[in-house]
Amino acid sequence: MTETQVDHVFTPIRLPCGKEAHNRLLKASMYEHAANFQGGPPNAAHMGMYKNWGQGQWGLILTGNVQVDRSHLTIGRDMVIPDLLNESTLRPFRDLAEAIHGGPDGAVDPPNRALAVMQVSHSGRQSANWVSGRFPWNPPLAPSSVRVGARESGFFPQLFYRLLFSTPKEMSTSEIDHVVDRFVLGAKVAHQAGFEGVELHAGHGYLLSQFISEKSNRRTDEYGEKLHLLRRIATETRRNTPKDFILGVKLNSADFVDRKASSSSDEKVLQHVRDIVSWELFDFLEITGGDYENPEFMTSVSKRQAFFSQFSRKVHECLPGGPNTPLIALTGGFRTYATINTALSSGHAELIGVGRLSIHDPHAPLRLKSEGRDYVPPPAPDYTISIWDQLFDFLGWFTGVKVPVLMGAGREMCWYTVQLEKVAGFAPIDYGVSGFGAILRSIGGVKIRSTSCHTILSWSSCALFAVILSWVGLIGVWDAMGRFTSSGYLGWDQPL
Ligand SMILES: Cc1cc2nc3c(=O)[nH]c(=O)nc-3n(C[C@H](O)[C@H](O)[C@H](O)COP(=O)(O)O)c2cc1C
Question: Is 33 in the pocket of ligand 1 (CB under 6 A)?
């Protein structure tokens, strides 16, 4: 490997606030599914994971989303910002920052230490009914009363989304003020615990993204102006943290770009980005895509990469340049030295976010540095190794009903959260875990491997699955005969 080949990936870069990342590799935010059920502080499992990543020589390490509101969790085991700021509530967050910095034993030299950035988030209407930290009959808060999946047509997708998500309550001004205070408290916790910065999660369909997106924000007050809440939170965060505190934001390209790419939608996109950049509040903008209705951040690597990098290139073209211009971080599908280096050298981004590869290989930067273009990423998993996964896929085919993409993304997400236990234990990941086994393990807490499919547990799961399959098949036939929909019995197919 020659010097020029490593130039872009391993050149240090200064952020507008003055902090410097020693290379361009950012360990992307990934929900750990490791806190107490119903949310809590970071614990030993988090320490293990972040200590492992901390030794991998990443330029920046982002935590998984830390919820600012205990009653709006994602999948139930989120880290949560405490209500009170004192020594005992700060202690676990201090330990987490220390783990990212290489641990108390000084295992990582200061020049190779990652900048520690906490991602703060509120899931808004995407806080699922059963694991949200609320009673299921309490609706989640959102900019407008528009349910996740409201635009889906068809009985099964509707049933699926209805079971998972309630129609949200439109937030009052005082509820919005409270959310602003909680984000600011999140930044204070991060700062006092020793993190170098925070990233506001305004992607993947969570609350801040809901305010930005036309499909979920139908307000007519000042918050109907799509960027108003984001600006308020960013301004208040800056006001309450030191000048050299990193402030980033994760944005959803899908909120901005119309795939049909009419020039008017492009112009809207660029105007939004220009506005955000002109505030001079952010150190970096991380570009991603998708939400729970369209989870592209987890699927279709090649299409997604092309889409995001096209967006990122457009963003770059409208940046003014200069010391206060935020850096662009591009996340999604990066696995090889060549793609990372190309994205950097073609000017699509200044930082590259790496998610799933960092689970396969927590020390990827070390290996990319020593192996360069010869780096061979670990193989991607095959989720369909168990009989349940094949049945799962068969379900979609048999009923002739489009199983929502979210289920596929959910299976992949569960698989990776199960593997995070391996990252915490500094152990190699386990390719023997099936997608369906990962769902049981991750949601039900049941440990199951494809090789154990002859156990009683496996067969009872199979039987249960067969019952569900027959039930779903029966309803599918009924649905196809038009009994429900034509009579309007369920009334879920009506447009908003
Ligand atoms: C298990 C898992 C959990 C994730 N949790 C988060 C999260 O908490 N916040 C976030 O912004 N993105 C989250 N993501 C998305 C990743 O940050 C990243 O955008 C996505 O995985 C695409 O990057 P990749 O192709 O490098 O994996 C998660 C992804 C995975 C696989």
Answer: no
Most confident of the ranges 148-157, 292-301, 349-358, 375-384: 349-358
Identify the top-confidence range among 177-181, 454-458, 481-485. Answer: 177-181
For residues 302 and 46, give the distance between their C-alpha atoms in angstroms, rounded to a whole number: 31
Residue 205 Cβ inside 6 Å of ligand 1? The answer reads no
Q: By three-state DSSP, how is residue 197 classified?
A: strand
Give the range of the structural domain holding residue 454, as residue numbers without chain letter: 383-487
Q: Are 357 and 429 in contact (CB under 8 A)?
A: no
Choosing from 26, 27, 29, 307 the residue with most ligand 1 atoms within 8 A of its CB, the one to mutate for a pocket test is 29
Helix (H) or strand (E) holding 354: strand 351-354
Listed in sequence order, the DSSP H helices in 249-300 are 253-256, 263-278
Q: How far apart are CA 102 and CA 140, in angstroms?
A: 38
Q: What mean pLDDT is predicted for residues 445-453?
A: 45
Same domain, 352 and 253: yes
Strands 13-14 and 20-21: antiparallel
pLDDT digits (tens, 9 = 90+) for 66-82: 999 999 999 889 999 99
29 lines ligand 1 (CB under 6 A): yes
Which phi and psi (to 5°) does residue 297 adopt?
Answer: -65, -10
Residue 175 in 3-state DSSP? helix
Q: Are 336 and 29 in contact (CB under 8 A)?
A: no
Q: Check if 329 has its Cβ closer than 6 Å to any atom of ligand 1.
A: no
Residue 171 sits in the same domain as residue 287 = yes
Q: How many CA atoms lie within 13 A of 171 on its CB side?
A: 25
Whether 496 is in a domain gets the answer no
Measure Cα distances from 200 to 30, 237, 315 in Å.
14, 10, 19
Q: Report which residue type is found at 73.
A: L
**Is 74's C-beta closer than 6 angstroms to any atom of ligand 1?**
no
Which residue has its alpha carbon closest to ligand 1 atom 23?
Answer: 332
Does 22 contact ligand 1 (Cβ within 6 A)? no
- Atom 7 (ligand 1): residue with closest C-alpha? 30
Residues 109 and 224 in one domain: yes
Name the CA dihedral angle for 156, 157, 161, 163, rounded to a multiple of 10 degrees: 10
Is residue 126 lining ligand 1, measured as CB closer than 6 Å?
Answer: no
Pairing status of strand 66-67 against strand 60-62: unpaired
Atom of ligand 1 at shortest distance to CA of 203?
11
Does a structural domain hold residue 495?
no
Same domain, 365 and 394: no
Q: Hey, CA dihedral for 246, 184, 231, 151, is it positive or negative?
A: positive
In the prediction, which pLDDT does 495 show?
Answer: 29
Pocket of ligand 1 contains residue 413 by CB under 6 Å: yes
Output the CA 28–ligand 1 centroid distance in Å.
Answer: 6
Yes or no: say if 370 and 392 are a contact pair by the CB < 8 Å rule. no
Query: 31 and 88 share a domain?
Result: yes
**Residues 284 and 200 occupy one common structural domain:** yes
